[in-house]
Specification:
By secondary structure, this protein is of the alpha+beta class. 24% of the residues lie in helices and 32% in strands.
Length: 106
């Protein structure tokens, strides 16, 4: 029988996925506000102009009902992006994996 994600971290050799929690919301602002991310083709939403605007965007778009949102981190804890599971259908064992954002690394 299929089950929904239960909140446990998913940890690999280089990357870990943790459910996005309140303590990670402000960490997203540098990624969400980087103009280069949008210039590279990310078009899921507008670019926030302040930390407060970023919080509102995350609350309305990322933490909307029906989504399971993961913070994508390097194993050292550095936030590098997010990804969401949507349209979870346990009966048909399907899920939409999307709304993925990665910041730029220099």
């Amino acid at each position: 029988m299929s089950t929904s994600p239960d909140g446990r971290p998913l940890v690999g050799e280089w990357v870990r996925l943790d459910l996005l929690a309140d303590d990670g919301i402000d960490e997203l602002y540098p990624l969400l506000s980087d103009p280069q991310v949008y210039a590279d083709g990310y078009v899921m939403h507008r670019r926030p102009v302040s930390v407060e605007d970023s919080r509102a965007l995350v609350a309305s778009r990322f933490l909307a009902a029906g989504r399971v949102v993961y913070a994508i981190r390097l194993v050292d804890g550095t936030l590098v992006g997010t990804s969401s599971l949507l349209e979870i259908d346990l009966a048909n064992e399907s899920v939409h994996l999307g709304a993925t954002l990665y910041g730029r690394r220099w």
